[in-house]
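ok so for the tutorial part 2 we go from a plain amino acid sequence to predicted structure tokens. step 1 is just haveing the sequence, like this:
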Amino acid sequence: MVKHFLEVAHYGSEELRRLLDLAAELKALYARGGRDLCLAGQTMVLLFEKPSSRTRISFQVGMAQLGGTAIYVRPEDIGGLGRREPLADLARVLNGYVNVIVARTFAHETVLELARYATAPVINALTDRAHPCQALADLLTIQEAFGSLAGRKLAYVGDGNNVARSLAVACVRLGLRLVIASPAGYALPEEFLRRAREGGGAGSVAQVPDPYDAVRGADVVYTDTWTSMGQEAEKEQRVRDFAGYQVDGKLMAAAGPGARVMHCLPAYRGLEISNEVIESPQSLVWAQAENRLHFQRALLKYLCG
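step 2 — the prediction. this is what the tokens look like for a chain of 305 residues:
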């Protein structure tokens, strides 16, 4: 049966640990000049409805470093995903052409439909519901910074979006304590949190309204944009609603001197994070961005190697 990577919840704790271990092994191999060309002769297609910099470049570089070839397809190149022809037809055509499908879409149902008909692995490179590649690259970064994941506290301050969802499940699976602080109306649904807690793993997830309560004792303070792609019409209202949730020097001081800061980028400095903090010695943001490559290279080898 073909193995896809659509949501963190589809993978158990041990399998996620194997992926992180493989990412660390390949990162070390490439750092010392080694190469693993396990995907030589294989082809990856990138189907992107949303613009991207880190996701696109890291997947293309990762595939090239494993010896394979990447093809980037914009929606206008094929008349839009699911518009010119059904997604089921496109998936079955791609079955005869490529070895892995990477999809970055608005609706989560789009990647589910591709996976229903694809005989090649489908990787979710971001949907409105989940961002599993980002979450696992983030945990790789925390593991590198602190030496281990178990028992670490991660405070997420901001919108209960696709990144927060994937982090919630990943933290529970891999033994971290996640505390999310969001204003009223932007928190994750309690039913989702219940399923995340019951899905297995030694970690925990909780939500509080006050960002200062969330960050106390945190090893890592994490934030993301308050207005994601597709929500531009809500920006002014969101900026008002998220007043007091900026990750700035005062909030980081409440977390403690050893706390580090993360942001999945692009960052809107002066809104969800201050320039002072993102450029401070506490910042893991650039290591976090680089680790998208290292995790995704490992994921490609795991699914296709």
